[in-house]
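<purpose> Linking amino acid order to shape
<body> The protein record starts here
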Amino acid sequence: MARVVLVTGVSDYLGARVATALQDHPEVARVVGVDSVEPEHPLGRAEFIRAELHDGSLAEAVQDSGADTVLHLRLALAPSHNGREDRTGNGVLGTMQLLAACQRSTTVRRLVVRSTVAVYDCLSEPGQSVPEATKARARKAARARLHEAMEAAKAERYVRGLARRRPDLSIAVLRFADLMGPSVDSPLTRYLGRRWVPVLPGHDPRMQFLHEDDGVEVIRRMALVDREGVFDVAAPGTIPLSQCLRRTGRSMKLPMPAPGLRVLSSLAGRDRLAYSPEQLRRLGTPRMLDCTKVQRVLNWSPTYTSQEAFDSYVAAWAATSRVLSVRRRRPARST
């Protein structure tokens, strides 16, 4: 039977692209996009349902759509302006409501959840033995800096709970590296695009990315197969942060001691990466992510390496900068 696919987070570029990518697949009959705000990007033939977090409309959307496949793409949330957990908890609240709707649904059979590799900063894998000292350090780090990781870790716990209650559901969790590409607008790309980029002295983390096209493709493929588990998703290779800044050709490092970074973090806007020392230490990956599992089950490999993904972002950023520069130099027409 042809699938009915419900995609949350279609106001975001990634969600909109996933919704459109699924429309022409022969196994998909309908695509329903759900979000709390109107999409900024075209959805093609996908239907759109506006759902709020506090009135039960998200559950109604799942029920009324008759969806058998649900893609939840709203877990990787940007940190709040001060790097602390958002007390409204909208990301977790939305996940809880969606999972409750999936549990009650008589039609949902497949659930794919987008998460983030940031969860490794504050949780251990189920069944993994972790020393108490390590757990204490992780809890302390999580309290200090990891809004995104804490949100994602909570959401993953709720997903595991649903799997226990509904063992008949096929559930996959995709832990994404930082998305990168010509259309990505995120706290990280805004941080890297600044004229002066605050950094920690002596700290040059290695960055591992995932190109936006590969992100769309891995979600599309995972939606249409019956494979369960938790999967890391990242492009091969890493790039030092210092090299990323050099490749932009404009951004320059601004080494600052921890006290200065904390002051800067307190002044950062809500849509910016928080510049606390703890937040900057989170940049990069502590180890090369092993993505052979997702490549094996999907018979797929990323098209772009981390460096190629970043190069595509730099090329688009440079082109935009040139256009803006030409517009600024163009003389105004006399009236």
Observations:
- The CA atoms of residues 134 and 269 lie 33 Å apart.
